[in-house]
Amino acid sequence: MGTLRLPYNGRVKLESPFGNRILNGVPGWHAGIDLVGLDEKIIRAPCDGVIGVSTMIPRESDKTLTWQWGKYVRLDCADGMKIYMCHMEQRLVSAGQTVKAGDVLGVEGNTGYSFGSHCHFEVRPAGMSSGVDPTSYLGIRNAVGIYENPKTVAVSSSSGTPGDGNVPHEWAKKYVEWAIAKGILRGDSAAKPNYRLNDGVTREEYCVMLGRFAEVLDELYSSD
Q1: What CATH number does the domain containing 40 carry?
Q2: Residue 210 belongs to what domain range?
Q3: How far apart are the first and last CA of the chain?
């Protein structure tokens, strides 16, 4: 059994193993593994730790090829291990933030040097400047296949940090508060709201949202 959880809830496809590979006809070394979330696209912390880096380096100013990672997050573990999760569509954590295993870090994407939505997952033990095979830490085979966490880890309750699932970012606060006031976005309970701001939206939830939005429009027009 590995010491890390897969960075998604549900089923995960390992599309490109660690080691030698050919990418677009060019042989090279893959210092991590490429993962695709099948049941959700939310990338989660594989263990407890502190966010060491949450950034995207512009290609034109980069001298180290780090731009190829696109939007990426580095999780620093207590034992000195550093875990990189790259090519995100959205980063939902900031440097210095403490997270628990299963907490939301971002959304799977296709940024940087990437050819399809996925997460490049790279593990560097303390003192190492290059990645090692992460599959032994995850408890899976270093082979193309579909894997799943033995136990789904729920998102922790709100810590009061913007983007943690209950507290909106500044750029979204106005509209989230409007949606709450209009009954379009509803928490789990009035006493302890959890608006699940970082959840992937299912078609069912989207239909409910549209239905509630339509109800609000009806109320507005009927009052004229």
Answers
A1: 2.70.70.10
A2: 170-222
A3: 63
- pTM: predicted TM-score of the whole model, two decimal places: 0.67
> Distance between CA 41 and CA 139 in Å, rounded?
21
Query: Token pair for residue 183?
Result: 């009954």
Backbone torsion region of residue 126, taken as left when φ is above 0, otherwise alpha when ψ lies between -120 and 50, otherwise beta: beta
pLDDT > 60? residue 142: yes
The answer to whether residue 202 is domain-embedded is: yes
**Which residue's entry shows tokens 């990426």?**
72
Tell me whether residue 212 is exposed, middle or buried, using C-beta atoms within 10 angstroms of its C-beta: 0 to 12, 13 to 18, 19 or more: middle
User: Are the C-beta atoms of residues 200 and 41 closer than 8 Å to each other?
Assistant: yes
Structure tokens at 136: 């032994």
For the stretch 19-66, pLDDT in tens is 998 887 888 889 999 999 999 999 999 999 999 999 999 999 898 889
CA angle, 50 then 194 then 200, to 5°:
75
- Asked if residue 179 is part of any domain, the answer here is yes
Contact 149/140 with Cβ under 8 angstroms? no
- Considering the domain architecture, whether residues 107 and 218 belong to the same structural domain is answered as no
Strand pairing class (19-23; 26-30): antiparallel
What is the dihedral angle through the alpha carbons of 58, 63, 69, 71, rounded to the nearest 10 degrees? -30
What pLDDT score does 200 carry?
Answer: 62
